[in-house]
Amino acid sequence: MSALLFEPCTSLTARNLENEIKNLLQNYEPRVDNVSVTVTPSPDQNYYNITIVFFIQNLTVPTTITFFLNASSNDVNS
User: What pLDDT, on a 0 to 100 scale, did the predictor assign at position 72?
Assistant: First the structure.
């Protein structure tokens, strides 16, 4: 996934990040279901706004996590 951060900050890269994050969660976090990932690029600021929504098994309330991923320095800011 980190290789995608060196790609241009575009809608195509955002879509690839969405798929990668979703696949990682589905493959490595068996306690979550119904994963939804939204990645919105902000090319002028060179970062992505990422929102992940998922259900933890046996819970009825979704969990939402939103954070910014800086494409130039790999910093994560929540």
Answer: 57
Instruction: Retrieve residue 8's tokens.
Output: 């241009």
Secondary element (H or E) of residue 76: strand 76-77
How do strand 76-77 and strand 63-70 relate by DSSP bridges? antiparallel
In whole numbers, what is the pLDDT of the chain averaged over residues? 88
C-alpha dihedral (24, 35, 15, 49), degrees to nearest 10:
-100
Inter-residue contact 18 to 37 (CB < 8 Å)? yes
Rounded CA-CA distance 51/42 in Å is 14
Q: Which residues in 28-62 belong to E strands, given as ranges?
A: 32-42, 47-56
